[in-house]
Design brief:
Blueprint (H helix, E strand, L loop, with lengths): L3 E4 L21 H6 L3 E4 L7 H9 L4 E7 L7 H8 L3 E2 L4 E15 L5 E7 L2 E5 L5 E5 L5 E7 L8 E2 L2 H4 L2 H11 L3 H10 L1
Antiparallel strand pairs: 1-6, 2-7, 3-9, 4-10, 5-6, 5-7, 5-8, 5-9
Length: 191
């Protein structure tokens, strides 16, 4: 199954709904790459040899597995709402879906939301400093491998004036928003 992404509507309805515009406005892999978002498709096996090659080539030395479901995540509703707060990280965010499905939303250059539907086998890399958020879809279940370079630092910085002047955000803006993001993304993918 190919990765599917689209521009979102402005509805305040349940965050787990698709929120597609009418008519649908797809976002291409090229549009995502221009924002620094990289996507890879693997088997969904935690030990997939091609995924392990990517992991090693990018220096991801730590991993853990999260299981997000009302029965497995304490305080599920509150945590799901916190994942959906718009935020950045100072490091890349890497997620590899082992089971289930969910959405990553990212801001484009014009501040519009793009929704990315993730299924088993999808691996996504969000660059440090990109405004994004996560939610499950209506199935309310995802099992995903989180990868990190070195010790995990999973601190979300919710969007505010202070995040716009953080080094990670300024670096992201200079590489992907102010510059030619497609060329920068191509270079990042090949490293």
């Amino acid at each position: 199954m190919a990765l599917e992404a689209w521009y979102m509507d402005d509805s305040d309805a349940d965050q787990r709904l698709e929120h597609r515009l009418t008519p649908n406005a797809p976002a291409s892999l090229e549009a995502l790459a221009a924002l620094g978002v990289l996507h890879f498709k693997f088997s969904g096996d935690e030990e997939d040899p091609e995924m392990l090659k990517l992991r090693d080539s990018r220096g991801y030395s730590y991993k853990d597995v999260v299981n997000i479901h009302p029965d497995t995540l304490p305080d599920y509703e509150r945590k799901l709402k916190s994942f959906f707060e718009e935020h950045i990280h100072t490091d890349e965010e890497i997620r590899y879906v082992l089971e289930g499905s969910g959405y990553f939303d990212v801001r484009d250059k014009e501040e519009r939301w793009i929704r990315i539907l993730m299924h088993k086998g999808d691996l996504i890399i969000l660059p440090a400093g990109i405004y994004h958020r996560f939610t499950l879809d209506e199935h309310n279940y995802i099992k995903a491998c989180r990868l990190f370079v070195g010790e995990p630092v999973w601190t979300p910085y919710n969007r505010c004036e202070a995040t716009d002047v953080m080094d990670a955000r300024k670096g992201y803006v200079s590489h992907f928003i102010a510059a030619d993001g497609a060329a920068t993304a191509a270079a990042a993918a090949s490293s």
